[in-house]
Every structure is written in structure tokens, then in C-alpha cells.
Design goal:
The protein is mainly beta and about 100 residues long. It has 1 helix and 7 strands, in the order E-E-E-E-H-E-E-E.
């Protein structure tokens, strides 16, 4: 389901409306919940009525739908990573007996 938010600044389950009148695709069940909010400012939109997105340049490539390209959020874990030494102990060292 595509929802238009008349006033920017709302977020819901990871979906963000950054601009007034912006249209975002959300799961149908989630969109139905948002449409039931009194004075929530949400409106269901037929995606066939939306203009074609303007291509944008991302990493030297033209992308038709910005925001749908994969994004690196953190380094990928190294497979078969080995630990060479135990972590250093914090705090006071243990007392040695003489």
C-alpha cells in the first residue's frame, strides 16, 4: 500500500516521511492501521497515479528508484575469524601470595 503523509516528520516501523506530501510504500496491514489514526494526515494513494521517479546518480550509476539500492550499514563479519589472545582483564590485578 502506498501512503501519502500530508505533513512531514512522521516515522512508523522504519518508514519515514521526510517531506510534506511524500508517498511511501508500506505493508498493507501497517497502512490500514495508519489510516485509522484520527487526524493522522495519511491518505492511501494508487501507485498508478504517481509520476515516474527521476533517475539519480548513485555510485556512478543511474538508479531509477533511489533508496532501494543496497546500503552498507556496518562491516560484514569475517568468516572463520580467530581470536589470537584473551581479552585484557580490567580492574585491580589479583594479589599474589608470597
Amino acid at each position: 500500500m502506498h501512503l501519502r503523509k500530508h505533513r512531514a516528520g512522521s516515522t512508523s516501523h522504519g518508514h519515514v516521511w521526510d517531506e510534506d506530501g511524500q508517498v511511501i510504500e508500506v505493508p498493507d496491514h501497517h497502512g490500514a492501521e495508519l489510516l485509522h489514526i484520527p487526524d493522522g494526515g495519511f491518505e492511501a494513494v494508487d501507485p498508478a497515479t504517481l509520476p515516474d521517479p527521476e533517475p539519480v546518480l548513485v555510485d556512478d550509476e543511474m538508479v531509477e528508484e533511489p533508496g532501494l539500492e543496497p546500503v552498507l550499514t556496518e562491516p560484514a563479519p569475517v568468516e572463520d575469524a580467530a581470536v589470537d589472545e584473551a581479552p585484557k582483564r580490567r580492574g585491580r590485578p589479583p594479589k599474589l601470595k608470597e
